[in-house]
Amino acid sequence: MAEPLFKQLEKLQEEFRGHPPVAKWNPELCGDMDLVIQADGHWIHEGTEIKRQPLVKLFASILKREGRHYFLVTPVEKWRIRVEDVPFLVTQAAREGDQVLLTTNTGDVIPLDKSHPLILKPYGDPPQPIPYIKVRGDLEGRMSRDVYYQLIDWAEPRPPQEPPARLCQLWLKSNGEEFLLGEY
């Protein structure tokens, strides 16, 4: 008889002390789990929000994306879940010198750099360009409004580099790279 999923996850977390190698795990699909990661960053299981942050962090550590689908995986189980936008919400930003660090709602700390670029994508109704960042693997996080405003505060306004001409572009430097935050 297979161990319950939570027990498997506890063992994996102890073994890997961080993020297990989910990219290497390819078990057969077990089915769909009634778990939704809402666009606002809340994790909802069977209609009820998961309020225990350690459990959310545990599930986030075994999250995997294949194409447009998201899964919770272990070496022996794979459960499809639903994600309304992206699985992570960037809730904090810190800067020291030329380095910007971003923290997600699940505790991941990501440097804004070439491997974790900031990408503007349309979001909302009407769609507005909002910054997203690659968190790990194929998983992305969307900037919260507070973090976006913090990044704008740190950005450098410049004339546009190419037509069509806008009045100004906002550029943010981090780890030797430059990232476009928006135009106005």
TrEMBL record:
InterPro entries: DUF1285_beta_roll_sf, DUF1285_C, DUF1285_N
Domain DUF1285 span(s) in chain numbering: 20-86, 87-180
Organism listed in the record: Microbulbifer hydrolyticus
Coiled-coil portions: none
Gene3D superfamilies in UniProt: duf1285 like domain, duf1285 protein
Organism superkingdom: Bacteria
Protein name per the record: DUF1285 domain-containing protein
